[in-house]
Amino acid sequence: MKAIIKIGITLCLAIASLTLNAQQDPQFTQYMYNTISVNPAYAGSRGHLSILGMHRSQWVGINGAPTSQVLAIDGPMGNNVGLGIVFTNDELGPSNEVFMDVNFSYTVRLDADDKRLSFGLKGGGRLFNVDFAKGLTENPDIAFQDNIENRFFPTIGAGIYYHSSKGYLGLAVPNFFSEEHYDGTVQEIATERLHYFLVGGRIIDLSPDLKFKPAFFVKWVPGAPVIADVSANVMIKETLTLGLAYRWDDSFSGLLGLQISPALSIGYAYDRTTTDLRNFTNGTHEIFLRFELKSQGRRMKSPRFY
Fold first, then answer.
1. Rounded to whole angstroms, how far apart are CA atoms 243 and 115?
2. Which of 280, 199, 178, 259 is nearest to 34 (CA)?
3. Which neighbouring-strand residues pair with 241?
4. Which residues in 275-300 are b (16+ Cβ under 10 Å) and which e?
5. Any residues with CB less than 8 A from the CB of 256 and at least 6 apart, and which?
């Protein structure tokens, strides 16, 4: 047990001590179902093969607004090892980024119950494209910038993830490398600093048919404001999920989920921004579809609420 704690502390200090830069990562309202995109230690934590597809259309009605898609496949490889692969496509204005990452996790059992601590590593790459001839711009000099075609950047990240049937808590850095991205605010290529992601949630049984889950998602970049999401969801009769979320100084959201069968679930989220953009957009739409290949014994258990 002491060795496990020392490993966890060492990993956290290693993450905290790094001062490298990282790319701008897509962010989702239904983050509780897409943890593997930012934390590799999540891989295999569900105990069976899981396939997740997610799409987000942000600020609908605004030309060049962000759109993102994710395809994530992960599962256990034996008792302690998890593997996963994540594909992400992200578009913003004239830019397009395609990510592909392989995730590895190693899990240790903390007690005789279901409490576990997972350590994760990820590695992969990103293709970065910018065509400055696309979209509208307020900067007349943007047309004279050189386009970028299929520029490749490697990605290496790490994370730690505690989880049980009653909750979860994770800390991760998706990429330690310095990389370029397109900054839509200044309409030019920029470099982001290191991103830290902290996620957590707690499952509370209100009754045999009603579960309540408060959760949070925090992204911190040194020298920039903290981005924080908080949410509250209820699951009714292990079938219907309803929730509300708030992103600090940015938006309010409504969430809806449905467990169609033991193997298939779907979800939808609608964001309404609180910024000045609310006068120009019809909101943000986000959907996900998840398929899980469970054994007969696991099908008898309650659906995972995260």
1. 26
2. 199
3. 235, 257
4. eebeeebebbebebebebebeeeeee
5. 241, 242, 243, 267, 268, 269
How far is 15 from 6, CA to CA, in rounded Å?
14
Q: How far apart are the first and last CA of the chain?
A: 26
Residue located via tokens 């409490």: 115
Q: Strand pairing partners for 84?
A: 74, 103
User: Which secondary-structure segment (H or E) carries 21?
Assistant: none
DSSP 138-185: S-GGGGGSPPEEEEEEEEEEEEEEEEETTEEEEEEES--S--EEEETT
167: left (phi over 0), alpha (psi -120 to 50) or beta: left
Closest CA to 155 of 124, 117, 116: 124
- What is the residue whose two structure tokens read 């964001």? 271
Kindly report, residue by residue over 247-292, the tens digit of the pLDDT: 998 999 999 999 999 899 999 999 999 998 888 999 999 999 999 9
pTM: 0.83
